[in-house]
Specification:
Helix content: 40-55%
Number of strands: 11
Bound molecules: alpha-D-glucopyranose
Radius of gyration: 25 Å
Strand order of the largest sheet: 2-1-3-11-6
Distance between the termini: 80 Å
Structural class: alpha/beta
Shape: globular
Strand content: 5-15%
Largest sheet: 5 strands, mixed
Number of helices: 19
Order of helices and strands: HEHEHEHHHEEEEHHEHHHEHEEHHHHHHH
């Protein structure tokens, strides 16, 4: 009897041990955790790429969704950044100095030849004290969306200057609003006005494209917020919202709570003549069921007369956590996402602009997306955010947006007191 009991106990022990060991095996299987954004086609594109890699490598990947706005995304990442919770992050191209300590130096994982295909400006944006913190997943720079059907209807020329925007808007708004039977307003321009990174990018582009205006640092690198050109740029947007001696308001104040997606939706509904936004919106606006399909084009941002268009550089990049427990696999996946074939797939299928020069000039891609070749030159003018000059660019960018906000909503059209105040606040935030 007791022998039987011993035998049963032995069998139970063997079965449990077997279960434990096989369970252990499953735990040890590589399972990467990655965090990616979901604006427009972002999530669809990345899942498609990751599925190909999973199939080829036999590895497992948990794709976690990042929140939309870039500022809230940074907040979402903060609790994870100093842990091994995530192996790969999708990061903003303006974030390098803020994440430099917690990301792998990609020089250790990519050869010089592998890196040479990427645009040098983007490699610079990803480099902090010689450390290459990220590589570009796709590139953006602020552009102007134009309803060409309406410009044609009223025989107006394509705007080149900021003043053209106000002039055309006033004419078209007047006519179109008179025709609208439902009385919903038609506006001249929509843009990301919420005081977050989006509004900061709009402001930097507007300031840098005005005479004696700049990216808040002057030519010798000194903080110079209260310059003549910057004041012009701020009051130009004040007039868009409040009107001035020559023109009526060309947008409602509701735009001050718009993000890139709310601006895109307003333009897509057909409620505005112009939009300032990133290139990702083009593919969505051109979808078969879009009310503005075939009725718009995307051109470079205007500038003040005699000045150059100066759009801010944006886009998304990918980085590997220094705390990753699976660095080899994570780097392997990163290389797959950035490979020539995968970057061409993203461009061909979703119109994402690659940071790889060889993809932009590819003949096969040119057949489907003829514009890509010209992009290789077009974003040469794009300006980087002055992120590396601040302890925390996210806070400085927010300050810039919120200070402009208070001014735009106030009664006085004079921006100078706000610019002076902002100068002193930003000077306490420098590195
Ligand atoms: C876009 C850009 C990004 C920028 C953000 C701000 O996602 O790609 O660089 O910071 O918009 O709105």
């Amino acid at each position: 009897m007791s022998k039987k009991i011993y035998a049963v106990i032995a069998v139970v022990i063997v079965v449990c041990l077997g279960f434990f060991l096989s369970h252990q095996g499953a735990e040890e299987e590589t399972r990467l955790n990655v965090m990616f954004g979901g604006v427009g086609y972002e999530f669809e594109a990345i899942n498609k790429q990751i599925d190909v890699w999973k199939e080829a490598s036999g590895e497992n990947v948990q794709v976690n969704a990042a929140v939309r706005g870039t500022d809230s995304r940074l907040q979402q990442y903060l609790p994870h950044l100093q842990t091994s919770a995530m192996d790969i992050y999708q990061v903003d191209v303006g974030w390098a100095p803020m994440i430099a300590d917690v990301m792998e130096d990609l020089h250790d994982h990519f050869t010089k030849e592998e890196l040479a295909v990427f645009h040098p400006g983007l490699l610079r944006a990803g480099t902090v004290n010689g450390k290459l913190v990220f590589l570009p997943l796709y590139v953006q720079w602020l552009r102007l969306y134009v309803r060409t059907d309406l410009l044609d209807k009223y025989q107006l020329p394509m705007p080149k200057t900021w003043e053209d925007i106000q002039k055309c808007s006033a004419i078209v708004m007047d006519k179109e609003n008179a025709l609208r039977s439902d009385k919903s307003p038609f506006w001249g321009i929509v843009f990301m006005g919420q005081p977050y990174e989006g509004a900061a990018c709009i402001l930097l582009s507007a300031m840098a494209s005005h005479t004696k205006g700049h990216n808040i640092f002057d030519a010798s690198g000194d903080l110079a917020v209260n310059s003549e050109g910057n004041a012009h740029a701020w009051s130009m947007i004040y007039s868009w919202l409040n009107g001035d001696a020559n023109y009526p308001p060309i947008v409602q104040k509701g735009v001050l709570s718009y993000t890139q997606e709310s601006a895109r939706q307003a333009f897509q509904r057909g409620d505005a003549l112009f939009m300032l936004n990133w290139p990702y919106a083009e593919e969505l606006l051109d979808a078969p069921d879009s009310p503005v399909k075939g009725k718009f084009i995307v051109v470079e941002l205007p500038a003040q007369k005699g000045m150059e268009s100066s759009p801010v550089l944006g886009g998304a990049a990918v980085a590997v956590s220094v705390y990753s427990q699976h660095k080899k696999e994570a780097v392997n996946l990163l290389k797959h996402l950035l490979s020539f074939e995968e970057q061409r797939m993203r461009a061909e299928r979703y119109n994402y602009i690659s940071g790889r020069h060889d993809v932009l000039i590819d003949e096969q891609l040119a057949k489907k997306r003829p514009c890509m070749k010209s992009y290789a030159r077009a974003w040469g003018n794009a300006i980087a955010r002055p992120a590396s000059r601040f302890k925390k660019w996210s806070a400085a960018g927010f300050k810039l947006g919120s200070s402009a906000h208070t001014y735009w909503q106030g009664k006085s059209p004079d921006p100078v007191p706000f610019l002076k105040q902002l100068h002193s606040e930003l000077s306490n935030m420098l590195v």
